[in-house]
Design brief:
Layout: H1 7-17, H2 37-42, H3 66-70, E1 77-83, H4 86-97, H5 103-114, H6 116-122, E2 126-129, H7 134-140, H8 144-156, E3 159-160, E4 165-167, H9 179-186, E5 190-192, E6 201-209, H10 213-224, E7 229-237
Parallel strand pairs: 1-7, 2-3, 2-6, 6-7
Antiparallel strand pairs: 4-5
Helix pairs in contact: 5-8, 9-10
The structure holds zinc ion (2 copies).
One zinc ion is lined by residues 22, 24-25, 27, 36, 39.
Length: 245
């Protein structure tokens, strides 16, 4: 083995050889960055009033979205940072299905930057990514939620617990399922690893929040194992409630 290259020089050389691709336009990002300034500005950050429970955009006069007004959730509260629009659909698909693992780090950092005040208020003691099934993880080579959660843990200094939850069932794609079917599908699909220590206040991290079925499954397992305050952060969140109840 040769001499070790200092971190910054290593990064510099790597960046020259393999410029980071921007998670929005998928082109090489300007040197030394990981997202184009224009693409960053164009991201659909949710800045309107949010549901007090799930963080979905709501009308000025509403406290809860239609879903949270009707249905209980296993988590305490949380929010998604970006609207799951056509652009974000492409970005999330690239992260999940096209091997753009590095997009997770950029998105995780952006989530952290936009959720600082929530993190200070919630004071979670563990950052826990939503697990995927081991077979899927082997196929993909990584868990996208873990890639997003890692920088949130690093930047906030909160303990990173990527192995605390396990996916006990391999669930199929939920795109075409109704809300009720999604919850049924996820029931018992996530559990706390045996012997895993669950603190009082936890933060679950995932890529997309749609009906909340996945986050609720994770939150339910954590609550059973002793968590009392269960928060979540997701990169994206759907705008309205699911029409296919
Ligand atoms: Zn770009
Ligand atoms: Zn809601």
């Amino acid at each position: 083995m040769g001499k070790e290259i200092p971190g910054f020089a290593h990064k510099f050389i790597l960046n020259l050889l393999y410029p980071a691709r921007c998670p929005v336009c998928d082109r090489p990002a300007p040197f030394g960055t990981d997202i184009c300034p224009d693409c960053l500005r164009a991201l659909p950050v949710i800045e309107t009033r949010r549901c007090a429970k799930c963080g979905k955009p709501v009308e000025e006069f509403e406290k809860y979205c239609e879903d949270c007004a009707k249905n209980p959730h296993a988590y305490t509260c949380g929010l998604g940072i970006f609207l799951y629009d056509e652009q974000m659909k492409k970005t999330m698909a690239a992260l999940k299905y096209k091997g753009r693992r590095e997009y997770g780090a950029v998105l995780g950092r952006l989530v952290f930057e936009r959720a600082r005040s929530e993190l200070l208020r919630w004071r979670p003691q563990a950052v826990i990514p939503v697990p995927i099934h081991p077979e899927r993880r082997n196929q993909r080579g990584y868990n996208q939620a873990e890639e997003i959660a890692r920088p949130i843990a690093e930047l906030s200094g909160i303990r990173f617990c990527p192995d605390l939850l396990v996916r006990t069932e391999r669930t199929g794609p939920m795109k075409k399922l109704t809300r009720a079917e999604r919850f049924e599908n996820m029931e018992n699909a996530i559990a706390v690893r045996s012997g895993g220590h669950v603190p009082d206040r936890v933060l679950i991290v995932d890529d997309i929040y749609t009906t909340g079925a996945t986050i609720d499954a994770a939150a339910g397992a954590l609550r059973k194992a002793g968590a009392r305050q269960i928060y979540f952060l997701s990169v994206c969140i759907g705008a309205g409630f699911m029409i296919t109840y």
